[in-house]
Amino acid sequence: MISDGILFEADDGRLGAAAFNVTSTRKWAVSNVGLFADRQNQQYVENTRGQVRGTNAPALYQTSRLSPGSLRYYGLGLENGLYTIRLFFAEAGFHDRNAQSWESLGRRVFDVYIQGRRRLRDFDISKEAGGVLRAIPRIFTINVTENHLEIHLFWAGKGTSDTPEEGYYGSSISAISVVPNFRVNGTPSGNPNMSRTALITGVTVSVAALALILIVAIIYVKRKREEDDEELLAGISPRPNTLSYSEIKAATEDFSPSNKLGEGGFGAVYKGTLSDGRVVAVKQLSVASNQGKEQFVTEIATISGVQHRNLVKLHGCCIGGNRRLLVYEYLVNKSLDQALWGKNKLHLDWSARFNICLSTARGLAYLHEESSPRIVHRDVKASNILLDGALCPKISDFGLAKLYDDKKTHITSRAAGTIGYLAPEYAMRGHLSEKVDVFGFGVVALEILSGRPNSDIRLKEGRIYLLEWVWTLYEKKQLLSLLDLTLSKFDEDQALRVIGVALLCLQASPSMRPSMSRVVAMLVGDIEVSTVKTKPSYLTYGDYDDITGCTITNEESQTSIVSYSSSSGIE
């Protein structure tokens, strides 16, 4: 359709979870990631139920694209320069806030990034528009420097998930327009009669006319960047291994969707094969755009020096232009959560499970007490533990949240982690220490033994939350009932030892949790497992199912956590 002289294309209405599509005119691409938890109908398009007010182009708002996690739009083949970006929003799925019903309590809250920079934080469409079915455009002036535009809508666990219906949340957008603020092929871009088609045609003609000049300019800029990068790397010790962007593009087949392994809090991950035959996992850091190049390289050099058999090995990085990519070893058995309860879960016997617990503990003990600098992971969970071909666990994403200094604890205004694994003192007060990782390990250990995630609403009441259930079994002296039913054989003494250690790791007071080196000693039987004195501490989100995980910040934890269960409180 055409509105105000701008041609709007429709994206693919069939686009679902973990999908990528380029429009027929190849002017736009869209990438979507995520499943709506607990929702039977995975609906990614919202049809507007009524007339949208406050606009002279209501047709733009007839449908909206929904995403439960990460939604990216890419403008392709743009001429570099300043553009006016208009994002068109209207809330069509939630009820009016003034309605006297529980359904009016629904809230949609998400962030919007343009070119890697957050432009809208905690954006609530109906709140900003003053009600539902009200148009609210947001306008930005953006400088395009590498011939493409990226608009990223990201839901980070805020708002509501069960209102007006279960599993309904995430970002929503109705339309996007991109108009240059400069002349294209002699035509002023501000001319309202200039359509999106004319813009692309103009760029193509201009590029053809100036091809020779552009080639020379590209070669000059590329050489200048390479010289600057070499000068920067010369001052870094130890110098990290670097790969060119062209090497990584070739390894991942230009970041082909078929090579995409997944997307986490730090960015998308792709499988690739380097020219020397090494199979790698390439992580595109979405959070690194705010860092300077020198700061980024210095941190990566530090992380590269942190090596242990139970930590994922970092092969190198790419710092070309504004890109921030990390190249890790590829582990064939993927993540622990997929091995335990994924679609293609593995058969893990008792020996494998006990070794995963013990080896993970050794990796964390190394980060806390032996590496330099010491590192607190902040997000220890099953999806951040990867398994190699021999089922040896390796901890991933360590050092990416923030490098840890020599102080034992510090207060942070931003808690980064996953509901179900977060220690309460960190989630609720921003109190960070290595004991935050100890708490996360306790949850993971129980998941390994039971073969189930820390929360699962498909189970009977009293068993939904793993930590609540294990305490009930502890009080009844039936701890071995926790073990996965698929385990035909197990070592009873080792099993009780792991459960006892896990309960110690889950104590409300950080001072009552053991260090990870002490955890290792208890698991191998060098010292006795201490007596558990209080009920585990845990946070719940009502009927929240944490199979996929979600990140939260300290600010939202103050308002989002439904209940905090502990018999002794937080220290």
From TrEMBL:
<dbReference type="GO" id="GO:0005524">
    <property type="term" value="F:ATP binding"/>
</dbReference>
<dbReference type="InterPro" id="IPR000719">
    <property type="entry name" value="Prot_kinase_dom"/>
</dbReference>
<dbReference type="GO" id="GO:0005886">
    <property type="term" value="C:plasma membrane"/>
</dbReference>
<keyword id="KW-0418">Kinase</keyword>
<dbReference type="InterPro" id="IPR001245">
    <property type="entry name" value="Ser-Thr/Tyr_kinase_cat_dom"/>
</dbReference>
<keyword id="KW-0812">Transmembrane</keyword>
<keyword id="KW-0677">Repeat</keyword>
<keyword id="KW-0675">Receptor</keyword>
<dbReference type="InterPro" id="IPR021720">
    <property type="entry name" value="Malectin_dom"/>
</dbReference>
<dbReference type="Pfam" id="PF07714">
    <property type="entry name" value="PK_Tyr_Ser-Thr"/>
</dbReference>
<feature type="transmembrane region" description="Helical">
    <location>
        <begin position="198"/>
        <end position="221"/>
    </location>
</feature>
<keyword id="KW-0808">Transferase</keyword>
<keyword id="KW-0723">Serine/threonine-protein kinase</keyword>
<keyword id="KW-0597">Phosphoprotein</keyword>
<keyword id="KW-0325">Glycoprotein</keyword>
<keyword id="KW-0547">Nucleotide-binding</keyword>
<keyword id="KW-0472">Membrane</keyword>
<feature type="binding site">
    <location>
        <position position="283"/>
    </location>
    <ligand>
        <name>ATP</name>
    </ligand>
</feature>
<dbReference type="Pfam" id="PF11721">
    <property type="entry name" value="Malectin"/>
</dbReference>
<dbReference type="InterPro" id="IPR008271">
    <property type="entry name" value="Ser/Thr_kinase_AS"/>
</dbReference>
<protein>
    <recommendedName>
        <fullName>non-specific serine/threonine protein kinase</fullName>
        <ecNumber>2.7.11.1</ecNumber>
    </recommendedName>
</protein>
<dbReference type="InterPro" id="IPR051824">
    <property type="entry name" value="LRR_Rcpt-Like_S/T_Kinase"/>
</dbReference>
<keyword id="KW-1133">Transmembrane helix</keyword>
<dbReference type="GO" id="GO:0004674">
    <property type="term" value="F:protein serine/threonine kinase activity"/>
</dbReference>
<keyword id="KW-0067">ATP-binding</keyword>
<feature type="domain" description="Protein kinase">
    <location>
        <begin position="255"/>
        <end position="529"/>
    </location>
</feature>
<dbReference type="InterPro" id="IPR011009">
    <property type="entry name" value="Kinase-like_dom_sf"/>
</dbReference>
<keyword id="KW-0732">Signal</keyword>
<dbReference type="InterPro" id="IPR017441">
    <property type="entry name" value="Protein_kinase_ATP_BS"/>
</dbReference>
